[in-house]
Amino acid sequence: MAKDQLPKQAENFPAWYLEVVKRAGMAEHGPARGSQIIKPYGFALWEAVQRALDDRFKATGHENVYFPLLFPEKLLAQEADHVEGFAPQVAVVTRGGGEELEEPLVIRPTSEVIMWSTYKNWIQSYRDLPLLLNQWCNVVRWEMRTRLFLRTSEFLWQEGHTAHSTEGEAVQEALQMLEVYREVAEDELAIPVLTGRKSASERFPGALETYPIEALMRDGKALQAGTSHFLGQNFAKAYDVQFLSTHGELEYAWATSWGVSARVVGGIIMTHGDDKGLRLPPRVAPVQIVIVPIYSSDEGKGGVLELAARVNEALIGRSVRVKVDDRDQYRPGFKFAEWELKGVPLRVEIGPRDVAAGQVTVADRINGGKKAYSAVSFIDEAPALLKELQRALFADAKAFRDANLREAASFAELRDGLREHGGFWTAPWCGDFQCEQKVSAETKATIRVLPLVREDPGAPCAVCGKPGVERATWAQSY
RNA sequence: CGGGAAGUGGCGCAGUUUGGCAGCGCGCUGCGUUCGGGACGCAGAGGCCGGGGGUUCAAAUCCCCCCUUCCCGACCA
């Protein structure tokens, strides 16, 4: 009988989540308020996400850079909406070298300010544009309430900051990166997402449009897994970034910024996890196949380890991330449970019976179940099997998301649905902040997305009954 | 930042009410038996009881301040 079981996912989702994060060896709390230490297994997953994103950034012409962690506080004050939005969450360094600093330094909560105040020096002509830069870094935001991966006071992310000569090009850039994020979420992380625009009240401070990807967690709450912003000329004007156009006129540059953080690691856990722990998408799983050798006597041991080593090498030859768990101190049942907790997509069991039959026993973490393969055919089929599991995991998550993406015809239905069922609820909206606020006040939900292209819903606002201007999608969220 | 709960070997906890030798389970180390779904025996190691101050002959235990974590709100990737 299994000892030391996880909390049931359905009974206490937050406790289940924290247990998985800790027991799978992904992260633990750090010593400072809201900080976290990311452990090797969690970091390996983040690295896989980084690779998937970075490959696409390069493919779309972006270059990586690094800007300072600290910059003078007064720089922050130049863009009104931006400073107002971030001031409460900014950490400030006031001492250095054993003395009070004359000029306090802020720890970046995001880098629009330091980058755009520098872009001023880099951009003179339309020939300097577009400027397509990204950086992988950490940022600090003094959040009131924190949770491992999902909201920590310091977090890892990438932030792209681009400058363009025309409004149209900047909007296209923001939408292009939204599409990159959608593709990484769905094709790599197997997380189906909604894309769209944010309402004015949910927009990034200083942005004209914010385009998010929104995912649905297994407890019915939404998670913003990435955002792309069209910033207009706000930052160019605040930091005086002007260029000479083809017509010889001085113009302000157009900006975008976009980011994905290590929060998505939490998103993977909460999208795919079950009562046994994680289920990882093969494309980003640090270990795709684990081989567990089983032997009951020293005589059987040699043959088992030999077959395990052969399968291991053959899989490495097929570019599979494979690991042989030959730890002597644990028995097979313990290893099975542990790798299930860690979410490894396929587990290969090789024991004396398998050696005798020239076969391997393969357990499937995504769909469940075990199946015997001849060693040779498993080696041949493994890459295709992993592809199939990736597809199955996405299909699973999508079925759940689609089943929890509902339409509300009335305010009562919207309110009760958000309160009682959770998930996404779509309803016609008049566009007024008052109506948005009323729903939020009664349900704790917020508008997660509006359609990318505004379209008449052909029905009155579910809240006030005035003519609707578009359909809003609501959910409670992390 | 408001309301609630909690911090005791790596992890999970008891002990605090009523002050008096710091304990239990898991894990860890060694040896042996085991090994196809979370093994067992024997012998060990490991703790300024979150931090600082106070009361007392004596503090994990009582008082004050601070820090951190969890849950519920307000804030957010």
SSE layout:
Layout: H1 13-23, E1 27-29, E2 36-38, H2 40-59, E3 63-64, E4 70-72, H3 73-76, H4 80-86, E5 92-96, E6 99-107, H5 112-122, E7 131-140, E8 154-164, H6 167-188, E9 193-195, E10 209-216, E11 222-232, H7 234-238, E12 242-244, E13 250-252, E14 254-261, H8 263-272, E15 289-293, H9 298-317, E16 322-324, H10 332-342, E17 346-350, H11 352-357, E18 359-364, E19 370-374, H12 375-403, E20 405-407, H13 411-421, E21 424-429, H14 433-443, E22 446-449, E23 470-475
Parallel strand pairs: 3-7, 15-16, 15-17, 20-21
Antiparallel strand pairs: 1-2, 4-6, 5-6, 7-8, 8-14, 9-10, 10-11, 11-14, 12-13, 17-18, 18-19, 21-23, 22-23
Helix pairs in contact: 2-6, 9-12
This protein binds one RNA strand of 77 nucleotides through residues 1-5, 14-15, 18, 22-23, 29, 31-34, 85, 88-89, 110, 139, 141, 143-147, 150-151, 155, 157, 212, 223-227, 259-264, 294-297, 330-338, 349, 351-354, 361, 444, 478.
